[in-house]
Structure prediction request, 141 residues.
Amino acid sequence: MTAEELRERIPLNELVFSASRSGGPGGQNVNKVNTRVELRFDVRNTFHLNDTEKEKIFLLLRKRINSDGVLIITSQSERTQFMNKKKSEEKFFSLLAAALTDKPGRKLTQPTSASKKERLEKKKIRSHVKRLRRDADLMEE
Prediction:
């Protein structure tokens, strides 16, 4: 599923934005302007995602979801509230798209002949080192 498909499915009125003062460097502008934007999306109570999609989101984005089932995304990298709002919106749709996209399974392959040779060579070297240690232990006794 792509971010564009999710934009069509999930209306923007389900996204709740709030602004606050941003932290970090930036001089006087940081201290007086609310540029940090926090996006909240109630995953548990949305009607635009089915139950299996909600389960996937809860499983893969659990660190960003609070105990009430609300997904929280913040953005404070830009200087304006408008740009941070756009950035948090893009981040939201890309995270959901990544969570809802099924990953292809790994194809099993056979080891190459070069990798087999390399592994056997390392085993020979290791056994030689251990044999040298064993002989040294016998000489000490």
Notes: The longest strand covers residues 36-42.
